[in-house]
Amino acid sequence: MNAVIIERDTAAGRVLPAPAIPDLTLPQFVLGAADRRGSKRALVDAATGQELSYAGLAGAVRETGAGLSARGVRPGDVLALCAPNCIEFAVAWYAATSIGATVTTVNPLCTADEISRQLRQTGARWLVATSGLVEQKLPAAVAGTAIVETFVIGEPVAGAAPFGSLRAAAPTPAPPTPAAPVCASDVALLPTSSGTTGLPKSVELTHRNLVASLGQTRLALPVTEDDVVIAALPLFHIYGLQITLNLPLLAGATVVILPRFELAAFLRAVQDHGITEAAVVPPMILGLVNADVVDDYDLSTLRLIVSAAAPLGADLARACARRLGCRVRQAYGMTEVSGGTHIAPGTGPDRPGSVGPALPGVECRIVDPGTGAGLPPGEPGELLVRTAGAMRGYLGDPGATAATIDPGGWVHTGDIVTADEAGWFYVTDRVKELIKYKGYQVAPAELEAVLLAHPAVADVAVVRGQDALAGEIPKAFVVLRAPASAQELMAWVAGRVAGYKRVRQVEFIDSIPKSPAGKILRRLLTDREAGAGGPNGSGADGPNGSGADGPNGSGADGPNGSGGDGHGN
After folding, report:
1. Are 569 and 239 in contact (CB under 8 A)?
2. Domain for residue 354, yes or no?
3. Domain ends where: 132, 167, 183?
4. Tell me, what CATH number does 142's domain have?
5. Which of 75, 114, 273, 494 has the highest Cβ tally under 10 A?
6. Phi, psi (5° rounding) for residue 387?
7. Number of Cα atoms under 13 Å in the Cβ half of residue 501
8. What span, in angstroms and rounded, lies between the C-alpha atoms of 160 and 259?
9. Residues 331-365: tens digit of each pLDDT
């Protein structure tokens, strides 16, 4: 019988029980006390200065939800939300889910083809997006999908209804409850994830999944009404949505929203708004450690930084803590489990290389990835978790669901970890094939399909290359059938995928190693690169990945698109 490691931290002498899960929808759980909190600031847009109180947020959600119902949105309908971080994003999220609609969050950096694929996969009928996206990218993306109406945030656009008009269309006064009942077991969110392998899939997360995860997280990551939390991570991703929006609003804190991460804007917001907690990804920490401009700002209110979405080195964590004078700790989770499963405590022992113990209510097993046999503390193996936050499944993909969640309810993370005797976990490697570029997840199969469409490419395999600044980068091993340069192939990919998915290195090879069943033996290619002393292919943005999107991820694709599964959400 395989051993089960429950949530515990014996070094601190505590065992936290699993929290009760209230039978509430996500908006009911998060905004249940919003009217009572009245004029307290709920949301602040750092770029524009726009503010919304808790009472104002509750009213906007009720009225926008009623307006959506009046326009024909019904329980079970899918509404696509494609926008950078803004107050309207939060209102649309809570309004749609409060009336029983399912929201699929769309990365606005995706190409029109990628957005179209997600709209078709989820069957989205309604779309909320910013005016720039509606004018430039979305006409091509919407063609051939089930979208019946688009609501635009910002400047008016022909053929789209202003998002603000939804409040005007609501009955007066807006009904306090939705016209049709909404159940905690209904699907609330359809984010995308590539799972452990393969192309992007839509993850079915119910209200109960999201509420359960928040209930677990708030026991290990306390947020109070006095806190000011910055939302610099993308709200379209589970990490940003749960940790920088849902969790602080549940606690009655103030959320300061950044449209996107830029170091100077982040620092200015911390100084001007008295930020006390920040959730980040490792490239952001690298900037905080190395950039001279950090010394120009007063960051004394910042007491806690949580890093997730990709591994954070212990030395880098310590350097950040020393420079900023605050606690830096790691967390771990997946889109498939509605957010986090592990977080290092804010008090007690400081183990910067660890993602901490499991959250209350999260069970863990460490098994041999080949045999499934349980392993003792200290032995590396694949992490399996069981939690009430685990997804219902991948939409329309029972095979992929069965490959991720076994009959016992254990979610196979694909990550290799060790655990010490005190129940603290350390991520050491990954079984899965996904590449985590600055926190973004990149599926090798997707890039391989793009490269195979090039007339000069006979065969290809994409693996994780290593980079000092980005951590992991997509590297392509290519077999040519006709002459082509590395630069040509990288440009071919860059024109067909989102910026963060670009192939950063190309190495030409005589043949791709494969198993008798035809499966690419990526480990041989990864070992080949390691044996050669690191990256040796040609890279359009240089050996350190410091091209158009910047060494700190502050350009076109940024660091704030943290990955959907694997280390740290």
Report:
1. yes
2. no
3. 183
4. 3.40.50.980
5. 114
6. -155, 155
7. 27
8. 22
9. 999 999 999 999 998 777 888 889 999 999 999 99
- Identity of the residue numbered 128: V
Question: What are 442-459's pLDDT values in tens digits?
Answer: 878 789 889 988 999 988
CATH of the domain at 440: 3.30.300.30
Torsion angles phi and psi, residue 62, rounded to 5:
-60, -45
Q: Rounded to an integer, what distance in angstroms lies between the CA atom of residue 298 and that of residue 413?
A: 39
Query: Distance (Å, rounded) from C-alpha 295 to C-alpha 47?
Result: 22
DSSP state of 246: I
Mean residue pLDDT of the chain comes to: 87
- Residue 153, pLDDT > 90, answer yes
Which residue is listed with tokens 């905690």? 184
Question: Could you tell me if 17 and 360 are in contact, meaning their C-beta atoms sit under 8 angstroms apart?
Answer: yes
Write the single-letter amino acid at 138.
L
Beta strand pairing call for 192-193 and 201-206: antiparallel
- Give 118's contacts (C-beta < 8 A, 6+ positions apart): 80, 104, 106, 110, 124, 192, 200, 202
Q: Is residue 407 part of a domain?
A: no
Separation of alpha carbons 187 and 191, rounded Å: 11
Residues paired with 520 in a beta bridge:
514
Name the domain count of the chain.
2
Which one, of 226, 147, 180, lies nearest residue 66 by Cα?
Answer: 180
Answer whether 94's CB lies under 8 Å from 103's CB: no
Pairing status of strand 126-130 against strand 78-82: parallel
Residue 32 tokens, joined: 């249940």
Q: What residues form DSSP beta bridges with 296? A: none
- 223: DSSP letter: -
Tokens representing 20 are 């009760």
Contact 437, 549 (CB under 8 A): no
Token pair for residue 211? 């509420």
Helix (H, G, I), strand (E, B) or coil at 513: coil
Handedness of CA 500, 506, 512, 515 (dihedral sign): negative
Apex CA 499: angle with CA 316 and CA 328, to 5°?
Answer: 20
Q: Which residues of 41-67 are buried (b: 16+ CB within 10 A; e: fewer)?
A: bbbbbbeeeeebbbbbbbbbbbbbbbb
- Domain end, chosen from 161, 183, 205, is at 183
For the chain, count helices (H), then strands (E).
Answer: 18, 26
